[in-house]
Design a protein that fits this description.
By secondary structure, the chain is mainly alpha-helical. It has a domain at 28-91: 434 Repressor (Amino-terminal Domain). The protein has five helices and no strands. The protein has helices at 6-18, 31-49, 54-61, 65-72, 81-91. α2 runs parallel beside α5 and α3 crosses α4 (65-72). It starts with 5 loop residues before the first helix and ends in a 9-residue tail after the last helix. The mean pLDDT is 89.
Length: 100
């Protein structure tokens, strides 16, 4: 199989840029970004530990699946920190926040 030409590579890169996978935490993340990332991780852990699918989690949160998908993939620019905390507290009413 020959190596792809420049046009084929550019077309592939354009397709890859449109994909929306899980975002990773930046190495230079601020404390707030780290907190928000860890909060998203709590949603993922809750989902996994309770054997829920995305639809079931959305129903428990009282929101729609696309929003839950964004949280599970750390694509949370449209969510305030307060909103994330409110949503998670629906899953864990005993949630305690700690500032260190």
């Amino acid at each position: 199989m020959p190596f792809p030409n420049k046009k084929e590579i550019n077309q592939s890169l354009k397709k890859l840029n449109k994909l929306e996978g899980t975002l990773a935490l930046k190495s230079d993340a601020t404390p707030l970004e780290k907190f928000r990332f860890e909060l998203c991780q709590k949603f993922i852990i809750f989902k996994k530990n309770n054997g829920l699918n995305q639809k079931e989690l959305a129903e428990m949160l009282g929101t729609d699946e696309p929003k839950v998908s964004k949280i599970l993939h750390h694509r949370i620019d449209e969510f305030s920190t307060d909103r994330l905390i409110d949503l998670y507290s629906r899953l864990d009413p005993d949630l305690k926040l700690k500032v260190s």
